Amino acid sequence: MTNQTTTKPLFETFSMDKLQLPNRTVMAPMTRGFSPGNVPNEDVAAYYRRRAENEVGLIITEGTGINHPASVSGAGIPVFHGEKALEGWADVVEQVHEAGGKIAPQLWHVGMTRKKGDLPNEEAEPVGPSGLSLDGEKVNEAPSTEEVEALVEAYAQAAKDAKRLGFDAIEIHGAHGYLIDQFFWENTNKRTDRYGGDLVERTQFAVEIVEACRREVGEDFPIIFRFSQWKMNDFQAKLATTPDELERFLQPLIDVGVDIFHCSTRRYWEPEFEGSDLNLAGWTKKLSGKPVISVGSVGLDGVFTDFSGAGTSSLDGLVEKLDRDEFDLVAIGRSLLMDPAWVKKVHEGRVNDLLAFNKEALKKLY
Ligand SMILES: Cc1cc2nc3c(=O)[nH]c(=O)nc-3n(C[C@H](O)[C@H](O)[C@H](O)COP(=O)(O)O)c2cc1C
Is the CB of 345 under 6 A from ligand 1? Predict the structure, then answer.
């Protein structure tokens, strides 16, 4: 396992005009379901605080629902609207800041992955670009153009509240087959208005969301955008099959001022396209010139979509890529679920003390 000297690049500062971090580590957004009544409580605040106390550079919260009746599925998933939930989030921010950390909420709408009857709003119909499930089956009617515009504004309101509550950035969840990604993907977006069309035209929903969030937070506030090629029902899916397509996909998002791209992959070491070692984050950095976050099985020997557990693994390959500037920041998911002190232990070279990820980590807020 890696020793202290070789992890040095992970502990260099990160600095861009809008965001400074003490090191290159990011807590990946992870849905936990421990927010009773959709309100993050003091246990949730203490959970994030523990990561801040243990040197995580930037915490990205679990996905939290924008103000729309079908934005989340589940009673314990935190939302990002209403007095109580926003008070809960204000406490989370305070705890993390007191411990010297930085934090961004991940703004989320689950789209068509929601089943009618799911809590908290059992009557709410799922909403997606064309009323299609991820497998392309018709579920309900497509929303009107005006209804899509209202969804854009719900993201903007959340961004405004995030800034007001003192968050350090926002992350827009455009990955994994949820609402925004359903607009990106041709399987789920058959719209004929301005939100549908070819790959570039299918970015319009995300583009308007970024624009509307920017309007609310101003120029100096960082907007992180998370996207993925893979979808929860299809790990091999590709929005972009070539670097050229990836560039065409990214350009509209660059043009409206995304500050950092969070490129979600399940294994950070996998090359994205043939003929180069670069992973999705590496390509995104090369093509966009923007800072990027890489992610996927950092420090682990098993992939996250198999929830059974994973052993620890060497960080050498990761650190080499970071040192080569393939990416700027590294998000850590499951390793931080089980072990709030994972980053600090790596920093101090206490690699034998790292706790491997196991299923128990999902049952409680360690
Ligand atoms: C329990 C759990 C919940 C997750 N919830 C989210 C989420 O809310 N939003 C998101 O973008 N990704 C989510 N993910 C994916 C993680 O952010 C991350 O990309 C993935 O776990 C790969 O990183 P890892 O291999 O270090 O765990 C979740 C992953 C896990 C394990």
Answer: no
At 229, phi and psi to the nearest 5? Answer: -80, -45
User: Is-catalytic flag, 155?
Assistant: no
333 in contact with ligand 1, CB cutoff 6 A: yes
Q: What whole-number distance in Å separates Cα of residue 298 and Cα of residue 7? A: 13
Backbone angles phi, psi at 300, to 5 degrees: -130, 155
Among protein residues, the one with the nearest Cα to ligand 1's atom 22 is 296
Look at residues 211, 236, 216, 222 and name the one whose alpha carbon lies nearest to residue 291: 222
All domains of the chain in start order, with CATH: 5-362 (3.20.20.70)
Q: Is 312 in the pocket of ligand 1 (CB under 6 A)?
A: no
Regions of the chain where pLDDT drops below 70 = 1-5
Atom 5 of ligand 1 has which residue's CA nearest to it?
30
Q: Considering the chain, what is the average pLDDT of its residues?
A: 96
pLDDT at 176 (0 to 100): 98
Question: What is the residue with the minimal CA distance to atom 28 of ligand 1?
Answer: 30
- What would the pLDDT profile of 247-257 be if each residue is shown by its tens digit? 999 999 999 99
128-159 pLDDT tens trace:
999 999 999 999 999 999 999 999 999 999 99
